[in-house]
Design brief:
The protein has 553 residues and is of the alpha/beta class. The protein folds into 2 domains: 6-277 and 466-502, ATPase, nucleotide binding domain (Nucleotidyltransferase, domain 5, 2-Layer Sandwich); 327-464 and 507-542, ATPase, nucleotide binding domain (Nucleotidyltransferase, domain 5). Helix content is 38%, strand content 17%. The strands form 5 sheets. The chain has a 7-stranded mixed β-sheet, sandwiched between helices. The chain has a 6-stranded mixed β-sheet with strand order 3-2-1-4-10-9, with helices on both faces. Strands 5-6 form a two-stranded antiparallel ribbon. The termini are far apart.
Length: 553
């Protein structure tokens, strides 16, 4: 089997898309480019000014096409290769990012630009929590067999909750949406001219288990008009690493690539990163850490793990069960704190030192001993994905005094995200799914203090992916398999992916302190897990209840 040639991996993220050129024979990354989305996250109003409600998050399909037109040619130029030597292209996407389209794949946002429900709902669109609650309640009452595969709850971020919101709030757009398709599959459709659905997004985000979606009977009980919903999803699923089709002339003109090369089946950004880290064997948990964190792991055993995001046959690599869990906010929490809660004097000091405000706060936080700031925080600023599956929860910091400084809170927030990760790991192991290696990937791996804190709190060594472009490299690896240059994903990952084992070792003294703090975190976690207080605060913030009139004085 020839391993000549190059492949392209394209990663469609939350704020930008990136392309990387990779050599098939050894995984060397020869060139890359990034294209920032013009519209970014559409969360306050549509491009024409139409306002959106709370917890909305949309995107523009044009931004994704612009990545193909911009980042791919720029990456090829940076790699200084002949495009004719490229043998395949693979893509990955945020999930669950749902696109309502006509039967030929035209996004409804192009036809109805002033209708919010015509636009793609980004993964972090959380306005469908009420619909998710209805689905979960009915599924639990009926004992639906698929519910335990998702830890007992499905998320407001997922396919069916967002689809039910579409029906509830804009029935006309629901009828117009002949297809309800993941961005991961829509972009492959644009590249190949062929509609495909991948087993990964269908399994994790669209409740496809044991060869079927939820029954029409179940869906009709949610709403009679919802009974036909799965007709919009497609039923033939393509395995990961397969060839979805060939690059069309139109897509070749966008990208500068040869017409007819292999296009890999779509994939989720987090799940495809496992190949880039050569972490596709049982027990290897990969934490893809960025604005949020997704924890994915393959296993040779099937178990019901409370609060997980799903367990799917062949969901990461064929032949193994693929597990997913996650944290809805990590880097986003640090960014929120830096943007809104740090005095100007800190920004000035960072500028004078020639470092970012994040680096400045990290340096000051690292000077402390573990536990000396006297704080404990919950990492729920963007809700809780695992293990509580409640996106209406909110953040909490306990222990602040008039002496609390910004670096204290910054460190407490870093620790909170690590405590959240430990909660996920312990839940898996308590359910009989051992985590034998914890591998960090994503942009946050560049922060050595954060990585060491995770090692100390998890009390286990941390391995780190070598590539800075994990999802894009993973997509390129899948492209190499789709192009027939490697026989399967496991073989391709061993040749083209890599990680550095046990880069960070836990410090026994800090780990002991963090054991005590983790006990406090767990107590706080369990106290607020029912959401009673946080949900009520959320209602008041949204103005969903009558506020008492202030007494006259």
């Amino acid at each position: 089997m020839s391993t000549d040639g190059y492949v392209i991996g394209v990663d469609f993220g939350t704020l930008s898309g990136r392309a990387v050129v990779v050599r098939v024979s050894d995984g060397a990354e020869l060139g890359s480019a990034v294209h920032d989305y013009r519209d970014g996250v559409i969360d306050e109003r549509l491009p024409d000014g139409t306002p959106l409600g709370p917890d909305w998050a949309l995107q523009s399909p044009q931004d994704w096409i612009d990545v193909l037109r911009s980042a791919v040619p720029e990456a090829i130029a940076a790699a200084d290769i002949d495009p004719c030597d490229v043998v395949g292209i693979g893509t990955d996407f945020t999930a669950c990012t749902m696109v309502p389209t006509t039967g030929d794949g035209t996004p409804l946002s192009a036809l109805f630009p002033s209708r919010p429900h015509a636009w793609p709902k980004l993964w972090k669109h959380h306005a469908a929590q009420g619909q998710a609650d209805r689905i979960n309640t009915l599924a639990a009452e009926r004992g639906e067999p698929w519910l335990p595969r998702y830890g007992g709850k499905i998320s407001s971020e997922w396919t069916f909750a967002k689809g039910l919101q579409l029906l509830d709030e804009d029935p006309e757009m629901y009828q117009a949406a002949q297809r309800w398709i993941e961005g991961a599959d829509w972009i492959v459709w644009q590249l190949t001219g062929v509609e495909t659905r991948n087993v990964c997004t269908a399994g994790y985000k669209a409740i496809h288990q044991d060869g079927a979606y939820p029954s029409a009977e179940f869906l009709a009980l949610l709403d009679p008009g919802f009974a036909d919903f799965t007709s919009k999803l497609g039923h033939e699923l393509s395995p990961l690493g397969a060839r979805a089709g060939s690059l069309t002339a139109r897509a070749a003109a966008w990208t500068g690539l040869p017409e007819g090369i292999a296009v890999a089946v779509g994939n989720i950004d987090a799940h495809v990163t496992a190949a880039a880290a050569d972490a596709v064997r049982p027990g290897q948990m990969v934490a893809i850490m960025g604005t949020s964190t997704c924890h994915i792991m393959s296993s040779d055993r099937l178990a019901e793990v409370p609060g997980m995001c799903g367990v799917v046959a062949d969901g990461i690599v064929p032949g193994l069960w693929g597990y997913e869990a996650g944290q809805s906010g990590v880097g986003d929490i640090f960014a929120w704190f830096v943007e809104h809660n740090v005095p100007a004097s800190y920004a000035k000091a960072a500028a004078e030192a020639g470092v970012s405000l994040h680096d400045h706060l990290t340096e000051k936080a690292a000077e402390q001993n573990a536990g000396r700031h006297g704080l404990i925080a919950l990492d729920w600023h963007n809700g809780n994905r695992s293990t509580l599956v409640d996106h209406n929860l909110s953040g909490l910091i306990v222990g602040q005094t008039l002496a609390t400084r910004p670096e204290d809170v910054y460190r407490a927030l870093i620790e909170a995200t690590a405590f959240g990760a430990r909660k996920i790991v312990e839940t898996f192991e308590a359910s009989g799914v051992p985590v034998e290696e914890f591998i960090a990937a994503g942009g946050l791996t560049r922060n050595a203090f954060l990585m060491q804190t995770y090692a100390d709190i998890l009390d286990r060594p941390l391995s780190v992916i070598v590539s800075d472009q994990g999802p894009a490299l993973g997509s390129a690896i899948h492209a190499a398999v789709a192009a027939g240059r490697h026989p399967d994903i496991t073989t391709a990952a061993a040749t083209m992916g890599r990680r550095t084992p046990a880069v960070y070792q836990p410090d026994p003294q800090r780990a002991a302190v963090y054991d005590d703090l983790y006990a406090l975190f767990t107590s706080l976690h369990d106290t607020f897990a029912d959401g009673a207080i946080m949900h009520r605060l959320r209602e008041l913030r949204a103005g969903d209840s009558e506020m008492p009139t202030a007494p006259e004085r």
